[in-house]
Amino acid sequence: MAYAPAEPVPAAPVLAEGTRFRVRSLCLAPGQTTFLQSRLHRSERWVVVEGTAEITLGVRARLVGEGEAVHIPLGQRHRLENPGRLPVTLIAVETGCYLGEDDVVRHD
């Protein structure tokens, strides 16, 4: 399958938020992919709740199915892709001392 050009993570509704955490819902259309990126001030845990995602951590990519979770340590390069024919939905739990969107470093 040919992937669409890389893009930022699509707008994701915030489900819960505190001083040092945020929970969001992410949805990627079939063929959609995000930039290879890392975060300077937060780590994330992604739980796939619908579909199958391809998640790259560092130089290794793997398929992650419904009910599976991936931990993304602070500073780890990562990318999210939807290789399937159906949308992929994830719940992302972000934790750290700073949760602003300007802490992203793009590696593409």
Give a structural overview.
It is a single chain. By secondary structure, the chain is an all-beta fold. It has no helices and ten strands. The strands form three sheets. A five-stranded antiparallel sheet has the order 1-2-9-4-7, with no helix packed on it. It has a three-stranded antiparallel sheet with strand order 6-5-8, with no helix packed on it. A two-stranded antiparallel ribbon has the order 3-10. A hairpin with a 2-residue loop joins strand 5 (53-57) and strand 6.
Assign a percent range to the helix content.
Answer: under 10%
What is the residue-mean pLDDT, rounded to a whole number? 91
Describe the largest sheet: 5 strands, antiparallel
Q: Which structural class matches the secondary elements?
A: mainly beta
* Uncertain residue ranges: none
**Radius of gyration, CA atoms, in whole angstroms:** 13 Å
Number of helices: 0
Give the overall silhouette: globular
- Portion of residues in beta strands equals over 45%
Neighbour order of strands in the largest sheet? 1-2-9-4-7
For the secondary structure, the number of strands is: 10
Order of helices and strands: EEEEEEEEEE
Termini separation: 20 Å
